[in-house]
Amino acid sequence: MANESKAFLLTWKTWEHENILRLLGEYKQNGFALHKWQINAHTQADIGMPVAIYSQHDEGRGIFGIGFIYGKLAQESSPYFNIAFTRFRDPLAKTYINDRLSQALLGDLVHSQSSGNTIAAEQYAAIASQVLLAGD
């Protein structure tokens, strides 16, 4: 069973923007987008745990998606997990939560160079409520 006290903050900075656009297209077509993502704290990750994704890109900082871990890769020690994004935007166009509010909610984690650090369930709940209120 998933650990209810944690969630994960994924980050995007240097990944090709075309990959973001591909995921956005998948999200618009299916209502969700699936992708494998590295989780720094992978030993604490489990199926069903929530994730939020934050853009560190200079042209669009802020939270641009939420979702959950839906699967592990076959190798037990792999830091990569399958993520289902249930809300997703192109952060270069518009984020759900701007950089200033993201920093207020997450503190120094928005500057982390590694993706997939743990955040408290309360932090995730605040993020998810703002994302859901924003709509698509």
Corresponding CATH architecture: Roll
Total helical segments: 3
Can you write the helix and strand succession as a string? Answer: EHEEEEEHEH
Spans where pLDDT lies below 50 across 5 or more residues: none
Structural class designation: alpha+beta
Rg (CA only): 14 Å
Q: How many domains?
A: 1
Distance between the termini: 30 Å
Shape field: globular
CATH class: Alpha Beta
Summarize, please.
Helix content is 26%, strand content 33%. By secondary structure, it is of the alpha+beta class. A hairpin with a 6-residue loop joins β3 and β4 (62-72).
Report on this model:
The mean pLDDT is 89. This protein has helices spanning 17-30, 99-106, 121-134, and strands at 6-12, 33-38, 50-55, 62-72, 80-88, 97-98, 117-120. The longest helix is centred in the first third of the chain and has 14 residues, at 17-30. Strands 1, 2, 3, 4, 5, 6 and 7 form a seven-stranded mixed sheet that branches. It has 136 residues and is α+β, with helices and mostly antiparallel strands. It starts with 5 loop residues before the first strand and ends with a helix. The chain contains three helices and seven strands. The chain has a single domain (6-134), classed as ph1033 like fold (Roll). A hairpin with a 7-residue loop joins strand 4 (62-72) and strand 5.
